[in-house]
């Protein structure tokens, strides 16, 4: 008899994105209570960056590091609530920095710097190729850089499952994430790359010069709602992979 092969698992992208947009409303009370602290800290960092006139390099570095740290609090909290329920975090959110948050921040910095390094390397290679090919026109150059960007974002999408896994105290690896997302790389690309790009585009469309204070407050609130949507989408994708493996 021939071995019966199980069909390849297809990540339900449409369902995941739909549910991700519902989560900020359905879980609004527990989310607002739990992530208000890191949101306030991130707003303070933004205000400090805006108030400082031409800050030097060390100040920019410290503000950026602070943003990464406060984002880690927010993302870990969201992941845990979506994947483990509201009782997985303290009543008013995570405020104590532990090894879990350190690992999460390490993954954030590691993956994004790896992607940046890959982008630079591929850009250098493409520049060399373009110089060898000679005058090939602006359209081809733009196409080549678009392809490079898509490939790097695809790579990031295959690795991004380490974030929800780390948030719920697991010890993922690059290889584990790559194997977990096998045959679903482009579906994850839609969730991890296209979704944030689309939401950022529509947010940019809402911005205008000489906006009022209320408009700025509304756009800031919308920004954090979209962050919750994007983090929740990663959590739901991770949950779908676990359920496919028979893990609750």
Task: Write structural notes for this entry.
- The protein is mostly helical and 248 residues long.
- It has 9 helices and no strands.
- The protein has helices at 13-26, 28-51, 57-84, 99-133, 138-159, 162-167, 174-180, 185-206, 213-244.
- The longest helix is centred in the middle third of the chain and has 35 residues, at 99-133.
- Mean pLDDT is 87; it is low at 1-5.
Topology:
Blueprint lengths: L12 H14 L1 H24 L5 H28 L14 H35 L4 H22 L2 H6 L6 H7 L4 H22 L6 H32 L4
Helix pairs in contact: 1-9, 2-3, 3-4, 3-9, 4-5, 5-8, 8-9
Uncertain residue ranges: 1-5
- Rounded mean pLDDT is 87
Name the overall outline: globular
Strand coverage percent: under 5%
Number of helices: 9
How are helices and strands ordered from N to C? HHHHHHHHH
What is the CA-CA span between the terminal residues? Answer: 33 Å
Number of domains as seen in the coordinates: 1
Helix/strand/pairing class, anyone? Answer: mainly alpha
Helical residue percent band: over 70%
Task: From the alpha carbons, calculate the radius of gyration and give it in angstroms.
Answer: 20 Å
Number of beta-strand segments: 0
Question: What's the story with the biggest beta sheet?
Answer: none
């Amino acid at each position: 008899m021939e071995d019966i092969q199980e069909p390849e698992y297809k990540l339900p992208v449409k369902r995941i994105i739909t549910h991700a947009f519902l989560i900020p409303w359905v879980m609004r009370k527990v989310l607002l209570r739990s992530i208000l602290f890191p949101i306030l800290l991130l707003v303070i960092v933004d205000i400090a960056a805006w108030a400082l006139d031409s800050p030097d390099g060390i100040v920019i570095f410290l503000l950026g590091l602070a943003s990464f740290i406060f984002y880690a609090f927010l993302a870990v909290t969201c992941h845990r609530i979506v994947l483990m329920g509201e009782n997985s975090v303290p009543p008013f959110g995570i405020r104590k920095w532990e090894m879990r948050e350190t690992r999460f921040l390490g993954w954030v910095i590691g993956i994004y710097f790896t992607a940046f390094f890959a982008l630079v390397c591929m850009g250098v290679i493409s520049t060399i190729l373009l110089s060898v090919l000679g005058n090939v026109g602006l359209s081809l150059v733009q196409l080549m850089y678009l392809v490079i960007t898509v490939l790097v974002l695809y790579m990031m999408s295959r690795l991004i499952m380490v974030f929800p896994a780390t948030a719920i105290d697991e010890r993922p690896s690059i290889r584990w994430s790559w194997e977990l997302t096998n045959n679903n790389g482009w579906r994850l690309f839609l969730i991890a790359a296209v979704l944030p790009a689309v939401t950022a585009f529509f947010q940019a469309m809402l911005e205008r010069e000489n906006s009022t204070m209320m408009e700025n407050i509304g756009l800031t609130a919308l920004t954090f709602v979209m962050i919750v949507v994007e983090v929740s989408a990663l959590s739901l994708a991770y949950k779908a992979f676990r359920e496919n493996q028979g893990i609750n």
